[in-house]
Automatic annotation (TrEMBL):
UniProt signal peptide: 1-24
Entry-linked SUPFAM superfamilies: Porins
Keywords tagged on the record: Signal
Domain of life: Bacteria
Protein name from the UniProt record: Beta-barrel porin 2
Organism whose genome encodes this protein: Dokdonella fugitiva
Length: 433
């Protein structure tokens, strides 16, 4: 598997962060590890399961750099999967999420670069086996101008070039240009209202995808409120989409993000939206979520295609932390209606839950589960996925950790041959610095 060169900007950010300067010292953590997996159904087949042993060395990093000139947040993993039984070809896998901001003129002019390297199924209707996976990448870069028009009025202009890429699904590859202008009125130290106009142009590389080229304009008003216990970001407006095909569309644009923190140990988040979108949106992952978007997240089975759709979604997440344990519960609901063709239109809902318990200073137990129900309205097909995981970890030293993990995954589908049950035992050793 090929890892695209676009992620090199993060390496540049790392180098700049580590160079002698007036920058604050970067917080860089990395992990080197190896794991041995025994899987009883590596091909995720209902009737013909195949056992396999997989040896996987890996490297992971997490970077946080906050300085006067350069700010960067990035996380990523690189792993090499060696299928010892030869059931599949060996693979090089990469995940990356990074954002770097170069402050050329403080509070006036910045240059921003973002890169999101991930893995998605080639055909979302088939099992997520190694032969049905591909690397995807979304790279974006451009300038941001800021202006002060008085004590309470702020202006901002963002220009961006974005490139989308899929290793196998070439009709997803595109070049995108966008401009976004915003005026914000400060109501005080905690609140502001804003008005925004955005325009974007999307052009796909493949001739077969040209009918899905589009131009889009959005106009909306926003409200932001931020205190120590409550953060609110809401917007409402309208979108116009000019398609190259025979018709154009327009519709309401709504978004809501809320985070309530009633105590240092507890927080509750709500996010909701009604908007036009395409597959590139699902590939933009926050660095903190790298490797954590499994069954029940609503983000683990994106349809990689050039088609535009109308998305309606709502999600909740509840977190509680104590000295020796923490847990999280996150349900979601999502409805996708494709503008041209209903083949992959879907109605989905599900949830994830995790529980972590440090029952001794060097021993910890981690439990996680997820469930996701997808109804493909245009196909008359329904899939229900579930996953369960239990892990016991032993921190041998401040750097070395052993983990023994057991997993169980299953799919129940109205298409009989699409169902499966899979079990795996994984032993890993990691060094963290």
């Amino acid at each position: 598997m090929r890892i695209t060169h676009r992620g090199l900007f993060v390496a540049g950010a790392l180098a700049a962060a580590g160079a002698p300067s007036l920058q604050a010292e970067p917080a860089l953590e990395y992990t080197v590890g190896v794991e041995l997996e025994q899987n009883d159904n590596i091909n995720l087949s209902r009737d013909n399961p195949v056992e396999e042993t997989v040896l996987t060395p890996s490297f992971a990093f997490d970077l946080k750099q906050q300085g006067a000139v350069l700010s960067a947040t990035a996380a990523g993993t690189v792993s090499y999967r060696d299928y010892l039984g030869g059931k599949f070809s060996d693979e090089l896998r990469g995940l990356l999420s990074g954002v770097a901001t170069w402050s050329i003129s403080p509070d006036r002019f910045d240059w921003v670069a973002e890169d999101y390297l991930g893995r998605q199924p080639i055909n979302v209707l088939q099992a997520d086996v190694p032969s049905n996976q591909q690397q995807t990448n979304v790279f974006s870069s451009g300038p941001t101008w800021r202006a002060r028009f008085g004590d309470n009025l702020r202006g901002r202009l963002d220009l961006r070039y974005t490139n989308t890429y899929a290793e196998e699904t070439n009709d997803f590859n595109s070049d995108r240009f966008s401009a976004a202008g915003r005026l914000a009125w400060l109501l005080g130290a905690l609140d502001n209202v804003s008005g925004s106009l955005t325009a974007s142009r999307v052009r796909y590389d493949e001739l077969a995808s040209r009918p899905f080229d589009y131009d889009r304009e959005d106009a909306y008003i926003g409200y932001e409120h931020a205190t120590n216990t409550l953060k609110l970001d809401a917007a409402a407006g309208y979108s116009w989409v000019d398609l190259r095909g025979p018709e154009s569309r327009s519709g309401t644009l709504l978004s809501l993000g809320l985070r309530w923190t009633p105590s240092p140990a507890t927080d509750l988040g709500v996010n909701a939206a009604r908007q036009f979108a395409d597959a590139s949106q699902d590939l933009v992952i926050d660095p903190a979520s790298i490797g954590n978007l499994g069954v029940g997240s609503g983000r683990n089975g994106s349809v990689i295609s050039p088609q535009l759709y109308v998305e309606k979604r709502i999600g909740l997440d509840f977190n509680h932390r104590e000295e020796t344990y923490n847990f999280n519960v996150a349900p979601f609901w999502r409805k996708i209606d494709y503008i041209e063709g209903e083949f992959f239109s879907q109605h989905a809902f599900g949830w994830t839950a995790t529980f972590n318990w440090l029952f001794r200073p060097t021993f910890a137990l981690a439990l996680s589960t997820g469930r996701e129900h997808r109804d493909y309205t245009g196909l008359g097909r329904t899939d229900t996925d579930a996953s369960y995981s239990m892990a016991l970890s032993w921190r041998q030293t401040s750097h070395w950790t052993w983990v023994l993990r057991g997993t169980h995954a299953l799919r129940d589908s109205t298409l009989r041959e699409a169902g499966y049950s899979d079990n795996a035992i994984i032993l890993s050793l990691t060094y963290t610095r």
